[in-house]
Amino acid sequence: MTTQGLLLLILLIIFVQLVVYAGVAFFRYWLSYQALKAEAGVAGPQPLPGPVAEPVSPAPAWEGWREFRVARRAYEDIAGQVCSFYLAPLDGKPLPAFLPGQFLTFRLDVAEPACGGSKSIVRCYSLSDRACPEHYRISIKRVPAGLASNHCHDHVREDAILAVKAPSGHFHLDVNGDGPVVLVAGGIGITPIFSMLSAALAARPEREIQLFYGVRDGSEMVMRARLDELAQRHANLRLHVCFSRPGPDDVQGRDYRHQGRVDIDRLRLELKIKPYQFYVCGPAPMMETLVPALADWGVAAARIHYEAFGPATVTRRAPEPEAGPALGVTFSRSGRRLDWQAGSLLELAEAGGVKVESGCRSGCCGACQTSIESGEVAYEQLPEFDVVPGSCLLCLAQPRTELVLAA
Length: 407
Hints:
The protein folds into three domains: 66-168, Elongation Factor Tu (Ef-tu), domain 3 (Beta Barrel), CATH 2.40.30.10; 181-309, Nucleotide-binding domain of ferredoxin-NADP reductase (FNR) module (Rossmann fold), CATH 3.40.50; 327-405, Roll (Ubiquitin-like (UB roll)). It has seven helices and 19 strands. The strands form four sheets. Strands 4-3-6-1-2-5 form a six-stranded antiparallel β-sheet, covered by helices on one side. Mean pLDDT is 84; it is low at 29-57 and 315-323. The protein is an alpha/beta fold. The chain has helices at 3-40, 147-155, 190-203, 224-233, 264-270, 284-297, 345-351; strands at 66-75, 82-89, 103-112, 117-126, 136-141, 161-168, 181-186, 209-215, 237-243, 258-259, 277-283, 304-309, 327-331, 336-340, 369-374, 377-379, 391-393, 397-399, 403-405.
């Protein structure tokens, strides 16, 4: 055999060995990956399915409205735009536990300077800490044009009395589970996420939790001290703070970990292949991109849990209204007939000068529930509130046929 032939033979043997080693390594990785997918119930990339059964929440802890006293107020950010209200029951009885992630419904009497009186409005605010038998806590962000948020910041002082309905909502964490969890919060969406985080660590301190929290800069970060304290106490908690536009005094590595928004690329970069449960809450732009991207990544729909703050289109939908010409909607008590083409029935009523009650505007509080005298509706997203048969929630409903409403 010539020298050249011997050299070629050696190179061929080396190449075959490399191929064999690579094949074995890939096969081992593939087996590990398949095992993880089987454990997570994932068979590959899966789009979100159609409407599915929502998790069942327990019956309300009390019926109707219950009076609470504001025992304490505390600001949660350096800009003073997020205020926590600690609420103690006026009757002094121990408070029932709630599911972390749920919200409270409030009836607020808000002044109307134009007429010299006041009006009653209904709003929902997330519980922002784990359950405590002495008090509940909510944290409210001041919104420039927000009627309720400005009222709470400016007029709801300590010792004020508020009418409150029992905790409710389908967006909540199972604190008894031991699987890894990814919590994702955008802006004030940290309020239910912090409740989940605090409750999960108290129930199972050894549980792996990855928290991604996105804000614009340090001035908008909420509950910074408490998040840092939990991260220092729990080695299994990994805190990913993301600033989309850091301020001049914000220092990476000290004030935040990543620059940019919380998106699917960030999650894929930071997370290992594990059967995570994902809990996501934030403003509409984040929700409308991140939740579908998780499904495209291959996360099973049963492992994606979310709640949008403000209107968003990611919630599982009921069937869309049939396409066709404008539909007539008659508001019988107001004597008005309006043509609907797009948007919710609440938007149609308000644009047409029909006076209707409204609260959360997201299907949670039931303030806009209205009887249907004839016709059918569909929902932009499935409501949290249990609608009385023969009625609809105007804030989410759209007509499927000509419609007559008792409003």
